[in-house]
Structure formats: structure tokens, C-alpha cells
Amino acid sequence: MLLLEGNHSTGATFTLLGFSEYPDLQIPLFLLFLTVYTVTVVGNLGMIMIIRVSPQLHTPMYFFLSHLSFVDFCYSTTVTPKLLENLVVEDRTISFIGCIVQFLLACIFAVSETFMLAVMAYDRFVAVCNPLLYKAVMSQKLCASLVAGPYSWGIVSSLTLTYFLLTLSFCGSNVINNFVCEHSVIVSVSCSDTYISQVLCFAIAMFNEVSSLVIILTTYIFIFVTVIKMPSAGGRQKAFSTCASHLTAITIFHGTVLFLYCVPNSKNSWLIIKVGSLFYTVVIPMLNPLIYSLRNKDVKESVRKLINHSMQFCQRCQLHY
């Protein structure tokens, strides 16, 4: 709070350019992103509800999946409403505090998702490599600790980066050539020395990406070796099918992150960065519940049962009245 009071930039405003260079596409983009956000909200909250009300889904795997859905919902809700607003209004400004809060929340959920996927990889490792000990190993206490880890590190990472952003000064034109308040675009409009903030952000981002990928790759190497040694083709197919949805989600998420890391920092690359950021912050939260529902027999069966129960309840109500 003292840092905020001593920072003269707290009264500054930023202009999020977003996709304003395409005026003819503003309404089509608004409708597109509104549809995506609606699917995201319904898909992720629906997934959480289905897991909570279906006893057969009360397992560690679906416990982690419900938290992944929660993170995706929160992440999308942090970014998309402001994006939609800026597509239909001429005033695309956002206050300094609003920009910092958006970055703080987006960073928490982005980091949490990174390690939540790693936690889910460990869960699949135990399920495939030690199936007889799965329930004993993946105890309720351990599952709670594994979920608390990504949230805790997300909060620590975000607060650390936000603290150093609050030490920067902003003056003159604060035009952000993006639709979201990311770290790189915030420091790009600062008129003070951003070296420490940039180095710290790079170090945290590299640690998060490398450590999570090491965990995921290590667990899947063990899974692959275990599956190859299985005597029956049916057993191998079942093992691979339990990991298919998670592998798809990991490939899309980390593929997008690595792509953004590889994009050169130049004026010509801003459109690519914006499209990549759009996929990362808006599209992926929509895709995850679709991936896990369309490729998962347990989820599809639970949905069928819920629909049947709802229809039977409606029929009984009609007969009663």
C-alpha cells in the first residue's frame, strides 16, 4: 500500500490498442470472442459441476481436472471481458491500477495452470506405473497439497513481478500495443530503468517453463516405458487412452508458450504476438473442457446420466401437474 502511495504513476492511464487497426472487424471479432467466452464459461463451470455431482468422478484425476477448469475460467474472465469492451467502445483506456490488477490475476492463473498440468502428469504416472498403489499414494492429503502448490507459487511469482512493476515510472504516451496488460508491454512504455524487472520476469518464466516441462517429460518417459512393457494390446490401449486428453492439453498449452518465446521482439512481430497471446489467454481456456469431455468416456457417461435424470425429473413434474 505504501508503495502505491509513493508511486506517482498510480494516476496514469494506459491505452490498450487491441485490434483497433482493423476497424471493419470490430463487430465480427466481438461476436467471435463473445462466443468463445460463453463456451469457456459454460464448459469450465459445467465441468466443475459434473465432477462435483457425479460420484464416479470423485477420483484424484478429476479432482485435478476440476481445478484446471477453475483456473481456466478465472484466467479467461480476467482477460476476455476487457477485450470485449474494447471492441465496442472508442475509449480503450485502462487505469494504472486496473492494468496492474489484470496483470497480477492473469499471472497467478497462468503460472497455476502451468504447474497444474505438471501435477496432472504426475497423477497419470502413478495411475499407469503403480496402479495397485494408486489410491494409497494419491491420498486426499497429498492431492490437496499438490493443488495448493501451483496456486501458492502462482501467487508468489505474480506478487514478486507486480512489486517490481510498481517501482517503475510512466510518463508521456502510455499506448500498449496489445489487448491485455502483459509484463513485456507494461515495461515497454515505462520511462524508468526496467532492467531488473525484465531479468526477473525472464528468470521466473524460464524456471516455470523448464521445471514444469522436466516434470511432464520425465513422467511420460516412465509412462511410455511402462506401457511398452505391457503384455496385452488392450492394456496398452487403455493406458494410452487415459493419457490422451492430458497430452493434447499439454501440447497445445506448452506449444503456444514456446512459440511465443521464439517470436523475435520487433515491430513486425507485434501482430504475431497478439494472435499468440489471444490463443494463450482466450482460446486455450475454451479448448481444455472440450478436450477432456469429448475424449473422456467417464465424463461423457456422467453427462448422459445427468441428462437422463433431468429428463426423468421433468417428466415426473409434468405427470404430477
TrEMBL record:
<dbReference type="GO" id="GO:0004930">
    <property type="term" value="F:G protein-coupled receptor activity"/>
</dbReference>
<dbReference type="Pfam" id="PF13853">
    <property type="entry name" value="7tm_4"/>
</dbReference>
<comment type="similarity">
    <text>Belongs to the G-protein coupled receptor 1 family.</text>
</comment>
<dbReference type="InterPro" id="IPR017452">
    <property type="entry name" value="GPCR_Rhodpsn_7TM"/>
</dbReference>
<keyword id="KW-0552">Olfaction</keyword>
<keyword id="KW-0807">Transducer</keyword>
<keyword id="KW-0716">Sensory transduction</keyword>
<keyword id="KW-1133">Transmembrane helix</keyword>
<feature type="transmembrane region" description="Helical">
    <location>
        <begin position="93"/>
        <end position="122"/>
    </location>
</feature>
<dbReference type="InterPro" id="IPR000276">
    <property type="entry name" value="GPCR_Rhodpsn"/>
</dbReference>
<protein>
    <recommendedName>
        <fullName>Olfactory receptor</fullName>
    </recommendedName>
</protein>
<feature type="transmembrane region" description="Helical">
    <location>
        <begin position="142"/>
        <end position="166"/>
    </location>
</feature>
<feature type="transmembrane region" description="Helical">
    <location>
        <begin position="273"/>
        <end position="294"/>
    </location>
</feature>
<keyword id="KW-0297">G-protein coupled receptor</keyword>
<feature type="transmembrane region" description="Helical">
    <location>
        <begin position="62"/>
        <end position="81"/>
    </location>
</feature>
<dbReference type="GO" id="GO:0005886">
    <property type="term" value="C:plasma membrane"/>
</dbReference>
<keyword id="KW-0472">Membrane</keyword>
<comment type="function">
    <text>Putative odorant or sperm cell receptor.</text>
</comment>
<feature type="domain" description="G-protein coupled receptors family 1 profile">
    <location>
        <begin position="43"/>
        <end position="292"/>
    </location>
</feature>
<dbReference type="InterPro" id="IPR000725">
    <property type="entry name" value="Olfact_rcpt"/>
</dbReference>
<keyword id="KW-0812">Transmembrane</keyword>
<keyword id="KW-0675">Receptor</keyword>
<feature type="transmembrane region" description="Helical">
    <location>
        <begin position="27"/>
        <end position="50"/>
    </location>
</feature>
<keyword id="KW-1003">Cell membrane</keyword>
<feature type="transmembrane region" description="Helical">
    <location>
        <begin position="210"/>
        <end position="228"/>
    </location>
</feature>
<dbReference type="GO" id="GO:0004984">
    <property type="term" value="F:olfactory receptor activity"/>
</dbReference>
<feature type="transmembrane region" description="Helical">
    <location>
        <begin position="240"/>
        <end position="261"/>
    </location>
</feature>
